[in-house]
Amino acid sequence: MVLLSQSTKPISVNYHFTRKCNKTKTSFVASEADMQRGLRLLRDAGMRKINFAGGEPFLYPKKLAMLCRFCKEDLGLESVSIITNGTLVTEAWMRAHARWVDVLGVSCDSFDEETNVRIGRGSGENVAQLFRIRSWCRMLGVKFKLNTVVCTYNWCEDMAATVEQLDPFRWKVFQVLLVEGENDEDDETLDKRKRNVRKLLISDEQFRTFCDRHQHLACFVPESNSLMASSYLILDEYMCFLDKGSGRETQSRCILDVGVQAALDEVRWDQNVFRVRGGMYDWSKDSRDAVGCGAVNSKELEW
Questions:
Q1: Are residues 170 and 145 in contact, defined by beta-carbon separation less than 8 angstroms?
Q2: CB 244 within 8 A of CB 230
Q3: Where is the Radical SAM core domain (predicted)?
Q4: Mean pLDDT for back-to-back runs of 10 residues, the chain (303 residues)
Q5: Beta bridge partners of 52
Q6: Cis, peptide link before residue 86, omega less than 30° from 0
Q7: What does the alpha-carbon distance between residue 58 and residue 68 come to, in Å, rounded to a whole number?
Q8: Bond preceding residue 55 cis, omega within 30 of 0
Q9: Residues 37, 38, 42, 43, CA torsion sign
């Protein structure tokens, strides 16, 4: 493993504070005090953007609101974002807490309900809820983002027309990624937080076909497996960094026990790929400096 230098800054962190999902099983959630202490350590180490994910973060709406407010008001972060499957987002929550949220991203792998059921995301209300969330974001000044994982069941789908209607400021399109030891086991042997992804895998050519069909959209931001591996800083529910690069998934020690830098030195984070894939973009709803979708001033890239 190549260790990171002592000057590494965890500029953008994806914090999976829960693995519980309304479509799967339950898992550990840290205490409010530990979460706040860990987030403060990350800010002091150079974090400028936090993304709350899961599991499904809206299963804990009060905790999620607390985390968003803490990161904006107490820590003064440039950007607070959330990734959700969208099913539990409500107008009431948005009206009460949107002031502390810069970006709300919704995961949607298909606009066809039968396809969503096959993938495991079917609810019967996916598309209607997407438009509701987009309306709330527009009303409250939150940037609306769309995330799609391209897999066996949706790589032939043409999603362009509906994406244009939704008008997200970014549409992140990922090639489904196999992580050894994380999502490659047989269903009956899986840990409660994991699922078998082998049956969903597609070839690079299939992913390119999907991308070619949608690349004319200004909001389109594709990410192949080569761009995804080791280019995200992922903090799990135990406040440990995860390394999802080549080989088996590995876990650092907890940042509360050893500090941020020591934990970072135990995982790989490819800063160059982070930049290449557009990891720095116009991520604050108050930003006035960006030019076009996903733009960033190169002088902001401080390492």
A1: yes
A2: yes
A3: 1-212
A4: 58 93 74 98 97 95 98 98 96 98 97 88 80 97 97 97 97 80 40 61 95 97 77 92 75 97 90 74 64 36 30
A5: 15, 82
A6: no
A7: 12
A8: yes
A9: negative
